[in-house]
UniProtKB/TrEMBL annotation:
GO terms for biological process: cell division; protein import. This is Tol-Pal system protein TolB. Part of the Tol-Pal system, which plays a role in outer membrane invagination during cell division and is important for maintaining outer membrane integrity. GO terms for cellular component: periplasmic space. Belongs to the TolB family. The gene is tolB. It comes from the Bacteria.
Length: 429
């Protein structure tokens, strides 16, 4: 099954069947905490952005940078004369406010109903330009440009690639209906790509961001599907006797790891991503599930109860000796490896709480969340944040936390619960 807890949920869900009430997928971002050494930055309102871009430009940039946990947004409303060009900048005034860098820009009309958005990022202490960009787009792409500007600022300051133009996938449960949705990383522009009266679970992105693999119970049993996000077409790639669950993509996108019960209990198999005959990777008398590839594709991390309770193990993708990775606590599930392969995150049950943990490969581990009911952690593609599902106010919500635990944002869904989050790759179409 998808994981040890969903072994129970899935059995209950098979009995559910009812009309689907409408569900709203509006998310409200709530940023909690913040690192002590955040970069102080001002995003000045761009010239004519309200008239030409609907005022939906610099607020998105500010929001993106805030949720990363690495920036402290400084309000410049009390500084006279909003700067739009480097020549407009009164550097001593901004330096006196403690601002380290400032983004300035303008929006100009372009032929064909389009607009040209220009921006510069200036270093206040050195009076020099750090990065700049110019984009000619239609009104429907303003938000995309805002995310791109945030990515460019993030990379210029941190040296790391930004994640604000990536997307997330998750399952929205409302009443007895299930929707598989994708959205911007801040929860905006949510789209439903599959709606069902039966459970949907375990969505995972292909490495190129074009496909989602997931488990659907629409045929009254768990089947692994792959859906093309560009065309909407989909196909059942694992529909063998018994249960088909917990898909995971290989780093090159050619192979899926799946969990099948054709041998009697849940075991891990590899198969072509377009379907075909599965090859069994591990053999045990217990339940082996939740496989995930290491970035080099050489190993699988997975969960097994072969030692009496669910723990995390590793095995070569070609098969071979199995290595146990989790030793603290009696219940450790849902492993996901960091993009650099140096650590992995998972969920540990301890004292009645399900908490997100990060473990350095070959080293110690530390808590990223304090529960009470966190699940399905997923790394951002730059490895700087972890997305996971939790509970707040009696509802399931999503959190994205920095890997050092200093800051996190809450994405609250109205009239629905969010489950099984998965952070998409860079440059998703």
């Amino acid at each position: 099954m998808a994981n040890f807890r969903t072994l129970i949920y899935a059995g209950m869900a098979l009995m559910l069947a009812a009309a689907m009430p409408a569900a709203r997928a509006e998310m409200v971002i709530d940023i909690i905490g913040g690192g002590a050494n955040r970069h102080a930055i001002t995003i000045a309102p761009f010239k004519d952005e309200t008239a030409r871009a609907g005022g939906n430009l610099t607020p998105v940039v500010r929001n993106d940078l805030s949720l990363s946990g690495e920036f402290r947004l400084v309000d410049g409303a009390d500084v006279p004369n909003v700067p739009f060009e480097p020549a407009d900048l009164k550097y001593p005034l901004w330096q006196a406010k403690g601002v380290q860098s400032i983004a300035i820009g303008k929006v100009e009309a372009a032929p064909g109903g389009q607009m040209t958005i220009s921006f510069r990022l200036m270093d206040i202490a050195q009076h020099k330009q750090l990065t700049a960009g110019q984009f000619t787009v239609g009104p429907d792409r303003v938000r995309e440009v805002a995310h791109t500007i945030a990515d460019m600022i993030y990379e210029a300051i941190t040296g790391q690639k930004g994640i604000f133009n990536t997307r997330i996938a998750y399952v929205l449960k409302s009443g007895r209906s299930y929707q598989l949705q994708i959205a911007d990383v801040d929860g905006a522009r949510a789209q439903t790509i599959l709606r069902s009266k039966e459970p949907i679970m375990s969505p995972v992105w292909s490495p190129n961001g074009r496909y989602l693999a997931y488990v659907s119970f629409e045929t009254q049993k768990p089947v692994v599907w792959v859906q093309d996000l560009a065309t909407g077409s989909r196909r059942a790639v694992a529909n063998f006797k018994g249960s088909n669950s917990a898909p995971a993509w290989s780093p090159d996108g050619s192979t899926l790891a799946v969990v099948l019960t054709t041998s009697g209990n849940s075991q891990i198999y590899l198969m072509n991503a377009s379907g075909g005959s599965p090859r069994r990777v591990v053999h045990s008398d217990g339940i082996d599930t939740e496989p995930t590839f290491t970035p080099d594709g050489g190993r699988l991390l997975f969960v097994s109860d072969r030692a009496g309770g669910p723990q995390i193990y590793s095995v070569p993708t070609q098969g071979g000796a199995v290595q146990r990775l989790s030793w603290n606590g009696g219940y450790n599930v849902s492993p996901r490896v960091a993009p650099d392969g140096k650590s992995f995150t998972y969920v540990r049950r301890e004292g009645g709480k399900f908490r997100v943990v990060i473990q350095e490969m070959g080293g110690g581990d530390r808590y990223l969340s304090d529960g009470p009911d966190n699940e399905r952690p997923s790394y951002a593609p730059n490895g700087r944040m972890v997305l996971y599902a939790s509970e707040a106010g009696g509802k399931s919500v999503l959190y994205a936390a920095t890997v050092d635990g200093s800051s996190k944002m809450k994405l609250a869904v109205i009239n629905g619960d969010v489950q099984d989050p998965a952070w998409g790759p860079f440059n998703a179409p």
